[in-house]
Amino acid sequence: MTNDRGLQDAQVKIGTKQTVKAVELGQAAEVYVAEDGDQRLTSKIVMLCNKQGVKITYVDTMLNLGKACGIEVGAAMAAVLKQ
């Protein structure tokens, strides 16, 4: 991720609903997807990102993605918003 504090310094939307909404509205600069997330959910965001031209970065586990976002639980996906 970007720095020692992970994604916490950037404006981030965490979770499936918020990430999908950010991409659909053209607000997402980059999307992080957990490789162990539910494939039904992650495959949809991957297709949407490809369609919208949003960069996707894969993270090995939901727990690591959650930690990078500064939360105590796992996250299947997160979107970094455009500045």
UniProtKB/TrEMBL annotation:
<protein>
    <submittedName>
        <fullName>Ribosome-associated protein L7Ae-like</fullName>
    </submittedName>
</protein>
<dbReference type="InterPro" id="IPR029064">
    <property type="entry name" value="Ribosomal_eL30-like_sf"/>
</dbReference>
<dbReference type="Pfam" id="PF01248">
    <property type="entry name" value="Ribosomal_L7Ae"/>
</dbReference>
<dbReference type="InterPro" id="IPR004038">
    <property type="entry name" value="Ribosomal_eL8/eL30/eS12/Gad45"/>
</dbReference>
<feature type="domain" description="Ribosomal protein eL8/eL30/eS12/Gadd45">
    <location>
        <begin position="10"/>
        <end position="81"/>
    </location>
</feature>
